[in-house]
Amino acid sequence: MTKPSWFNRLSILFGLAFLYLPIVVLVIYSFNGSKLVTVWGGFSTQWYATVLANPSIIEGAKVSFLVAAVSATAATILGTLAAVVMVRLRRFRGRALLNGMLLAPMVMPEVVMAVSMLLMFVTLGIDRGPLTITLAHTTFTLCFATVVLQSRLVELDPSLEEAARDLGCPPAKAFVSVALPNMVPALVSAWLLSFTLSLDDLVISSFTTGPGASTLPMKIYSQIKFGVTPEINAISTIILGTVVLGLVAAQLVSRRAEQRGKRRCLKQFETGDS
Amino acid sequence: MRTAATPSSKTSWGRRILIAIPYAWLLVLFLAPFALVAGISLSTVRLGMPPFEPLTAWDGSILNLRLNFENFLYVLTDDTYLLAYLTSLKIAAISTAAMLFIAYPLAYGIASCSPSSRSLLVFLVIVPFWSSMLIRVYSWMSILRNDGLLNALLLKIGLIGEPLRILNTETAIYIGIVYTYLPFMVLPIYSNLSSADRTLIEAARDLGCARISAFWRVTFPLSLPGVLAGCALVFIPVVGEFVIPDLLGGADTQMIGRAIWLEFFNNRDWPMAAAVTIVLLALLVVPIVYFQSRQAHTRT
Description:
The complex is a heterodimer.
Chain A: H1 6-29, H2 46-52, H3 55-88, H4 95-107, H5 110-124, H6 130-155, H7 158-166, H8 171-179, H9 184-200, H10 203-208, H11 216-224, H12 230-271
Chain B: H1 5-40, E1 56-59, E2 62-65, H2 70-77, H3 79-111, H4 115-130, H5 133-144, H6 149-157, H7 170-194, H8 198-206, H9 211-239, H10 243-248, H11 256-265, H12 270-299
Helix pairs in contact in B: 1-12, 3-7, 3-9, 4-7, 5-7, 7-9, 8-9, 9-12, 11-12
């Protein structure tokens, strides 16, 4: 296409303003000195102090981070296996079903998945709590992790691994030592995506938890039901800040890994060994 | 065959285990639970834990199977549930259409930029998708309230004499849905537009096609797969949406996701909640299968 026209610029500007204005407003008002949401009472960080002194919020954050870290790790490992199965093993019985089970959670309404997984846990007789939330989160983030890893694995040249196998390397070892290092950026973004999706989830956690274990979104939700308070703005800003920092860090990591990969290739090319 | 089998049977075992692990996980935690939901939807509510009667019972040496279809009869004949299903489908359809109007120009605009600014703009579209949905819905609560920022602004300009009631109305639900799901609509359309064959448009232009008609006759029809993917990605989850109607909507607008939530947590009627869920799934089966076949098609 030619240069972006004024119409294109305007639609980008409008679209991004729509996406970001509410977030900006939220962040600004978290520093509001007044308790009233619409009145500006001067700059203040008092709400952050209130949040950090609230043991219930801190407890919820602990549960959320633990659940998110464990389920993101499990989802990334399972997602890698699923991606390898879908990309490398082209033909096997039941491939269509596996593909369907990997895609469906992406569009399945959360309430539907939440109800079904809860009934599963009840039937299996597993005590509901952080463990069941983690299992449920692993399941619904798994498909997102797989999509990220699959698209990376498709790009990878399988001939390198084939060479390693021809030289007597067992397939699993060939994958771990040849393909996996080339997938580090995708692994990082799959893990981060799973982590943030888990950290953010309200519906599935609410259904699959038992008495006692509440995640941060569940605590925020029950506070929001009482109304808008600057304290929630402060919690929200902390969460948004963490997510944005994580995203920027992931971008930097993947860019650096890419550059390192390029440099290594160049070096090998120069010295003549491969 | 036998003699050469030693190494290949070893790899085929590895292969089987590799396939079995993700398969087993998803079977147990994703697919089998739906069968359970279907089963429990035919059960009867009771006090205790779990709060439903088992479907089978031994009476001496006789195995009794008791299937209670009353939940389904109730769901399919009761006005409040029917209305909730219809409202959910209507809200999902209208907000999907509204999103298309915002997302398409945005995706088109990004695709028309230089490659370097493209990746920055795509990153900017993705960031809100990664950040908490609950928080983003919450951010609209303080904007749309009667004493919120939007009303304060409109009053100051003098456009309105008294505050508009937007929060707790259907309008607020539409705003919330369009806002939170927008990235899901923009990204498939963008990826389709950015991989489109430019030479076709140039050819149309060279042959004297005006810019606007070149868009409607070449670019837009070619981008339809992206548009349909975006619509499916948005429409299906929105039908079952809970957070947005719960926080932004009013008591008079009941969406089905919220009905399931209330049935579960307030009424504690699990069999009824399961029946409502099964009917919702039945409504969504067609679009879900369509979405999957599309995805499978584009991937091979």
